[in-house]
Amino acid sequence: xxxxxxxMVISAALLIxxxxxxxxxxxxxxxxxxxxxxxxxxxxxxxxxxxxxxxVDYAAEFMAERLARxxxxxEALDDLFDYYRKQLQxxxxxxxxxxxxxxxxxxxxxxxxxxAALMDRAAAAFSxxxxxxxxxxxxxxxxxxxxxxxxxxVLSSFEGAIVIARASRNLETLDLVQAQLHSLVGRQDPxxxxxxx
Length: 197
What we know:
It is a single chain. The chain has helices spanning 4-19, 26-33, 40-43, 47-69, 73-90, 98-105, 112-139, 144-168, 172-185. The protein has one domain: Orthogonal Bundle (Tetracycline Repressor, domain 2). Helix 1 crosses helix 2 and helix 8 (144-168) runs antiparallel to helix 9 (172-185). It is built from 9 helices and no strands. The protein is globular. It is 73% helix and 0% strand.
């Protein structure tokens, strides 16, 4: 069972992925989570910035755990795309990646301290996902350098496909990118075996 604090963090992540970071107010998070009115600053003395940072951390760990559970690179890729395909359809194409939303919006020159904290959290989330994807590829037999490069391509392509799918309100780009990445992830060469392409 989740605590009111945990519910607020999860609610913030869910609202950010659909609305973006700027439009997500603490009042919205309280309403969405059902947390008591006076609880926001009790649980998050750092205010909205702390709540947003923890929402990014939650999203980062949620997706990292999903990726780590996969038995192979292709399975991890399919789970990632299938999960977001369902989220996009259920939300009428509103549910994007909360980490991308924060990264895109965290550039307010009037609030450099808040922006820096959020950008650091977003960068850490992307780094964590790349690392988990690369580890999965290495476990499948890919050399470290190649796995790191392919993990960056997978993550960048996946995030871009979500943005395009949301904007176009269809899944065609997601399907095409998944197929192209699947062909790359599914044909890695075992370490020391040489190219077979």
